[in-house]
Design brief:
CATH topology: Rossmann fold
Distance between the termini: 25 Å
Helix content: 10-25%
CATH architecture: 3-Layer(aba) Sandwich
Oligomer: single chain
Structural class: alpha/beta
CATH class: Alpha Beta
Number of helices: 7
Largest sheet: 10 strands, mixed
Shape: globular
Low-confidence stretches: none
Number of domains: 1
């Protein structure tokens, strides 16, 4: 790991120890054109890292499925933006200490998506927590604004060292799957802009970003990578990789019913998507 990129793991032992995450997810099998929900259990270790780099503080969540053998392959998930329609879900001023909405609202994505991934694959997941200022793509706000590959390798080395203590080599990332939910698609696009030319990204997955009125109804792609969309909105023309999930098909999904299909897609389909991931 780079000498000037330092990590402190801050989660409690109850989360860093191997534990089960049980949740309702959308089944990959539907009946009569209607989606079904099933209980899914993912066994994993969960970490929260404070990363200090170039005098700035950044936060990264990580989920490691039980038995993960290879930390050179990683799924990177981007949460929705923390300010939406003027509503602040996590304040910029709370970010350095990871308080307020950061821990109270955003951190849940680590267990939610990581638990679903753990039920399908032995691939680690990281969630880089993104302030609104990070969307400039510039340091110090954006954690990958300088030395992006070195930074990602350092993050994955820190994850590996917590999950499998004793290794003394550095992790060299070789495959990246990147995904986002809703307005997090902007962060995914920034990540692709940062890493796309490296050839490391092998898969992109957009969970209902197309539902946003101002978003183009296209698959967000990275050079040479498989592109996927799971959305309630159909593409302008049929397209390989686009999974249309009509709102009527959620009739039998009771979990998060009050939040509607947009939330159900973002919070309940990562398991189904992981089963068909090209990163194995």
């Amino acid at each position: 790991m780079s000498n000037d990129i330092e990590f402190t793991q801050t989660n409690s032992v109850s989360l860093t120890s191997t534990h089960d995450v049980t949740q309702m997810v959308i089944s990959p099998v539907s009946a009569g054109g209607f989606f079904q929900e099933i209980e899914q259990i993912g066994t994993m270790n969960e970490f929260l890292f404070e990363m200090r780099k170039d005098g700035a503080i950044y936060w990264i969540g990580a989920a490691v499925p039980q038995g993960t053998p290879d930390f050179s392959k990683v799924q990177v998930f981007f949460h929705p933006t923390v300010v939406q329609a003027g509503v602040v879900h996590a304040a910029e001023g709370d970010y350095p200490g990871f308080g307020g909405g950061w821990s109270g609202s955003l951190q849940r994505y680590v267990a939610m998506q990581g638990g679903q991934l753990a039920g399908a694959r032995q691939t680690p997941l990281i969630v880089p927590f993104m302030t609104m200022a990070a969307f400039t793509g510039l340091a110090p706000a954006y954690m990958f604004g300088t030395r992006p590959i070195e930074t990602l390798n350092a993050i994955m080395t820190a994850v590996r060292d917590e999950a499998m203590p004793g290794a003394d080599d550095l992790v060299d990332v070789t495959q990246i799957g990147v995904s986002s939910f809703s307005s997090g698609i902007g962060a995914m696009r920034l990540f692709i802009k940062t890493f796309g030319s490296s050839g490391l990204i092998t898969e992109t997955t957009d969970f209902d970003g197309a539902f946003i009125v101002t978003e183009p109804k296209i698959i967000t792609r990275s050079p040479g990578a498989v592109g996927r969309v799971f959305s309630q909105v159909p593409p302008p023309t049929p397209e390989v990789g686009w999974v249309t999930m009509p709102t009527a098909s959620f009739r039998d999904i009771n979990t998060f019913r009050a939040q509607g299909p947009h939330a159900q897609i973002g919070w309940m389909t990562f398991f189904m998507a992981s089963l068909s991931s090209v990163i194995i």
